[in-house]
Specification:
Blueprint (H helix, E strand, L loop, with lengths): L16 E4 L3 E8 L9 E6 L4 E8 L5 H17 L6 H18 L7 E10 L2 E7 L3 E6 L2 E4 L6 H8 L29 E6 L5 E5 L1 H7 L10 H14 L6 E8 L1
Antiparallel strand pairs: 1-2, 2-11, 3-4, 4-5, 5-6, 6-9, 7-8, 7-10, 10-11
Helix pairs in contact: 1-2, 4-5
Length: 251
């Protein structure tokens, strides 16, 4: 969230809504939560260009929010260009933003941001992520996590050293192993998925999943209602972190 005169607006919930001509509808929410004073999350909702993202900044006051904004700004510039763009262009924009964040860091302070992005073209979707912001898909009554956290806890789970049930209570649960801008060169994980009518995608920062557990994505309800319920649930659970989400519904 911007500083100065905008401090009084930090607790406002933003409610952008967009519609894509191919029958894709999306909504976004971002909230500072109940503990933090600054919202270091940023969201991108560009359904008319088939591009969405959630960025969760790290680095504290005047660092994490700037890093997350740099990522979203880079994707906005890509979406604002009327020329067609492909998955490689999305990844290139993210990597360029990461290098810019790293180059602009001052002193010993480490600044960076996790990110999860979705690009849909026709019946194909591509996910991009670094860090522990997540992507889910609800299809046929089943909710599937499509991304895999880049975190210390996930590495421990993968190695068999930590049972998944103990992950959220681990003392280093917030330690991530990738973030754009933390170093000059960060690998972005990429996954291609199918997109079918009736699919519901969720992109979110860890402020949602750590507060509310596995998200409830019940079909047959308006996505703005689902988004409000997800946010309300995370706040009711204490809202210790910034909470951001994007829902993408395929008609």
């Amino acid at each position: 969230m911007k500083l100065g005169s905008l401090l009084s607006r930090r607790r406002r919930v933003e409610r952008p809504v967009a519609t894509y001509e191919a029958g894709i509808h999306s909504v976004a929410r971002t909230h500072v939560g109940r503990v933090r004073s600054i919202n270091e999350d940023r969201v991108l909702d560009r359904a008319t260009r088939g591009l969405w993202a959630v960025a969760d900044g790290m680095g504290g006051h005047s660092a994490g929010d700037i890093a997350a904004q740099a990522i979203v700004d880079a994707l906005h510039r890509l979406a604002d260009d009327p020329a067609p763009f492909d998955d490689d262009a999305v990844e290139a924009s993210l990597l360029a933003a990461g290098r810019r964040i790293c180059a602009d860091a001052t002193g010993s302070r480490v600044s960076g941001s996790t990110v999860v992005a979705l690009h849909i073209c026709d019946t194909v979707g591509t996910l991009f992520w670094a860090g522990d912001s997540r992507a889910y898909r609800a299809r046929g009554g089943r909710i599937e996590q499509l991304s895999r956290d880049h975190s210390l806890v996930q590495d421990l789970i993968d190695s068999g050293a930590l049972p998944p049930a103990l992950a959220e209570r681990h003392p280093q649960a917030h330690v991530i192993t990738r973030a754009l801008g933390a170093t000059p060169h960060v690998a972005i994980e990429r996954r291609t998925i199918t997109v079918e009518p009736g699919d519901l995608f969720l992109l979110c920062s860890d402020g949602l999943t750590r507060s509310g557990g596995e998200p409830a994505l019940a079909a047959g309800r308006p996505i703005d209602v689902i988004a409000d319920d997800l946010l309300a649930g995370a706040l009711a659970a204490g809202g210790p972190d910034n909470i951001s989400l994007v829902l993408v519904s395929v008609g």
